[in-house]
Specification:
heterodimer; A: alpha/beta; Rossmann fold; five-stranded mixed sheet; B: alpha+beta; seven-stranded mixed sheet; four-stranded antiparallel sheet; THDP-binding (chain A); pyruvate dehydrogenase (acetyl-transferring) activity (chain A)
């Protein structure tokens, strides 16, 4: 097979040249690729395309990335473009923001987005507001990325979802991929975007493989920011989600299909700007909306979706009040069973969908 | 199942039982079924003996306890002693209950009561409201099967309306287009006629569809009845002639129609309850007489309203009439002005101009009455002049017909109105009063 010949050739030369991401060799057919490899491929392509793009963060270079997302990049691009930093988020984020004011395009990795809280002043005040505050003089083409939300037993300080907080900031773009295609397309779009972009990945998705179409494998594969994706079409209930919970939404849709309820699943992809058009159109189509997120309920993404449904023409088409399924209103517990109880599970989503379709039988 | 009787008891007080054992046989109007225990326990007290007496569902028939030693506590137990405790559930038949209801049961019989709060608000989803409006249903009459009795879209779609649950068209509302073409502006031109083998199809314009719908609905909903009277027009024609003689040349002459409209408005003063609208739960009697005058025909049929005819003089009523009739003519670009849809409190139609003797008009909902005026004819009538030798005389006579909505205006009131109208027309000077 062509792919195995190529691999042998590379090994014989003694130097790994093009096999970034551990085996994602170009081919003419859809292949399976893990999310971390897709992100890595996206980073690699953008660094090749534009020499001003560089990566900075803890363990990104010599350690190959805390989650191996930047694997192979240090070897390929050297220490001027893949930079290990001390453990000081405020420091290296500020460095990155300053660099972006001088036409460089930094990609700042936060080992988890929880740690971005150490640098949130740089993200919001340093990056997001600059274009406005400088009257258009200071563009800030920076990308912040890292795993967001829950993991497995990472407990209260390392399991928070920052989607709601960052998505409320004008001047900042916020995206959150689900599949490998999403991940690669969004990181490339983020790097090419002249605005500061926060990319909220998910640790538990890094190792999960998805089919990567031919098109997605190409170097031009960019997912536009601001457009949601309809993962599954349906007619009875709309489930809106982002990041890992999209998988849960799809599972719930399967369960409901056996009960005769057809669910439409929307993968938001972009939290800011939020694709209001798609949300409204789907709500008008089905008349029932369930919003699913991992984060806390108060002032979450679901709250914004509820506001959209109230403030727009979608309201007139609602046949049931919106339901939201969110993480519990507690700091993430450490005990495994409590952690499970604090996060949306399949039965919670199914129950919410059933509440929207609830109908008492006539006498 | 609403009631049953106990055919026989299978256990007696003090007997222990396990889940599945039969307490008693219950006779319903459909079958005799066994009442089974759901849990283990002991029969403490039997409250109702076996017999033919009907027992309503919800009435306690039995007390059971978990432990045998508690039985004696209930030896003298009566239901009244239970105080606030809820009654034990009625004996549940173990066989599947009544035959499957027919697929489309009449709404009055099978559907649950319409969902209303104690404050009379209808609880319905926004989509249900929208659908009901489109379909012309009164949302309050749709039974709700959503949570808490909320009316949801499916309820509206499944609803089979009776005549009373069609939405009342409120006075003062503009004409609303039918559901088939929501939101479309009324188009005057309806497309060219299509010829077929032995027929020609004329496409129906928006305006015509709208009017047709409303007329059909009015004919269905309103309990019409008709009162007819012949009116001698001689005095009125005299008055008109003399009034027109006083007018200077630049003023337009007064027509007969404006006299008649004034007479109708004055009749409303005499019989105010006819100047009313049916509004389902109330009859609204209006203070001012606003008359819809039916003008034009076909696509240019319109019913402009002349407001406060009671307060206006005949000349100003005439001016407004002329203005309305002029708006019927196409303007310089050949366009027809849109028909006006403002609602008044009373409608008048004149078929006399076509030489027609009389007409029984269709009431414009939600008004209570409509008046149709026939042609002014020269007729031979009995001579009321005792001194004359002729027993007949010639007189100009017009036939007027009043349609009334019997829910608002009963026969006596309608007749009084028509009598007043006749008297005003035959003695036009009384219009000054």
């Amino acid at each position: 097979m062509l792919s195995s010949v190529l691999r042998k050739g590379v090994a014989a030369s003694g130097r790994r040249v093009a096999s970034i991401g551990g085996g994602g060799v170009r081919s003419m057919a859809t292949i399976d690729m893990a999310v971390r490899e897709a992100i890595c491929q996206g980073l690699d392509e953008e660094m090749e395309r534009d020499e001003n793009v560089f990566i900075m963060g803890e363990e990104v270079a010599q350690y190959q990335g805390a989650y191996k997302v930047t694997k192979g990049l240090f070897q390929k691009y050297g220490d001027k473009r893949v930079i290990d930093t001390p453990i000081t988020e405020m420091g290296f984020t500020g460095l990155g923001v300053g660099a972006s004011f001088h036409d460089l395009k930094p990609v700042i990795e936060f080992m988890t987005i929880n740690f971005s809280m150490q640098a949130i002043d740089q993200v919001v005040n340093g990056a997001a507001k600059q274009f406005y505050m400088s009257g258009g003089d200071l563009a800030c083409p920076i990308v912040f990325r890292g795993p967001n939300g829950f993991s497995a037993g990472t407990a209260a300080q390392h399991s928070q979802c920052f989607g709601a907080w960052y998505s409320s900031c004008p001047g900042l773009k916020v995206v959150s991929p689900y599949s490998s295609e999403d991940a690669k397309g969004l990181i490339k779009a983020a790097i090419r975007d002249p605005n500061p972009v926060m990319v909220l990945e998910h640790e538990l998705m890094y190792g999960i493989s998805f089919p990567m179409s031919d098109e997605a494998q190409s170097k031009d594969w960019v997912v536009p920011i601001g457009q949601a994706k309809i993962e599954r079409e349906g007619t009875d209930v709309t489930i809106i989600s982002f990041s890992k919970p999209v998988g849960l939404a799809l599972e719930a849709a399967e369960v409901m299909a056996t009960k005769g309820v057809s669910c439409e699943v929307i993968n938001l992809l972009s939290l800011r700007p939020l694709d209001r058009k798609t949300i409204i159109a789907s709500a008008k189509k089905t008349g029932r909306v369930v919003s699913l997120e991992q984060g806390w309920p108060q002032c979450g993404i679901s709250s914004e979706i509820a506001a959209i449904l109230m403030e727009t023409d979608a309201f007139n088409y609602l046949d049931a009040p919106m339901e939201r399924v969110t993480g519990a209103d507690v700091p993430m517990p450490y005990a495994a069973d409590l952690e499970k109880a604090a996060l949306p599970q399949l039965e919670d989503v199914v129950a919410a969908i059933e509440r929207t379709t609830y109908r008492s039988m006539a006498a | 199942m609403e009631s049953g009787s106990i055919a026989s008891w299978n256990l007696k007080e003090g007997d222990a039982f396990i889940a599945g054992e039969v307490f008693c046989s219950v006779e319903t109007d459909k079958a005799t079924v066994d009442f089974e225990a759901q849990d283990d326990g002991v029969v403490a007290k039997i409250l109702v003996d076996a017999g033919p007496d009907e027992i309503q569902c919800g009435q306690p028939i039995l007390v059971t306890v978990e432990e045998g030693e508690d039985v004696s506590a209930f030896s003298d137990f009566k239901v009244e002693d239970a105080g606030g405790a809820p009654a034990p559930p009625a004996p549940e038949p173990t066989t599947t209950p009544e035959a499957v209801a027919p697929p489309t049961p009449p709404p009055a019989a099978a559907a649950p009561a319409p969902a209303t709060n104690t404050d009379g608000r209808v609880v319905a989803s926004p989509l249900a409201h929208m659908l009901a409006k489109e379909l012309g249903y009164n949302i309050a009459s749709v039974p709700g099967s959503g949570p808490g009795g909320r009316i949801i879209a499916a309820d509206v779609k499944e609803f089979v309306p009776g005549a009373e649950s069609m939405a009342p068209t409120m006075a003062g509302q503009a004409v609303t287009p039918p559901p088939a073409t929501p939101g479309a502006a009324a188009a005057m031109s309806a497309g060219p006629p299509v010829s077929g083998d032995g027929y020609t199809d004329f496409p129906v314009s928006e305006a015509t569809t709208v009017t047709a719908g409303r007329l059909a609905q009015a004919k269905r909903n309103v309990p019409h009845y008709y009162l007819t009277v012949d009116i001698c027009m001689d005095s009125l024609l005299e008055s008109r002639k003399s009034m027109n003689a006083t007018l200077s040349d630049d003023k337009p002459t007064l027509g007969v129609y404006e006299f008649l409209l004034k007479a109708a408005a004055s009749s409303m003063k005499a019989v105010p309850s006819a100047n009313a609208c049916w509004m389902d739960s109330v009859v609204r009697v209006y203070d001012s007489v606003d008359i819809n005058v039916v003008l034009g025909q076909g696509d240019s049929l319109c019913t402009p309203v002349i407001r406060d005819c009671g307060g206006k003089g005949i000349a100003s009523i005439g001016d407004e009439l002329t203005k309305s009739m002029e708006s019927l003519d196409p303007n310089d670009e050949g366009e027809m002005l849109l028909p006006s849809g403002e609602a008044g409190t009373f409608s008048v139609v004149n078929v006399g101009m076509f030489g027609v003797k009389s007409c029984a008009p269709i009431i414009r909902e939600p008004q209570a009455c409509a008046l149709a005026l026939g042609a002014l004819e020269n007729r031979i009538v009995p001579n009321d002049d005792k001194d004359s030798e002729e027993i007949f005389k010639e007189s100009v006579v017009m036939t007027a017909t009043l349609s009334c909505d019997h829910r608002v205006v009963d026969g006596a009131v309608g007749a009084q109105w028509l009598a007043a109208f006749k008297s005003y027309v035959e003695s036009p000077t009384t219009l000054l009063l």
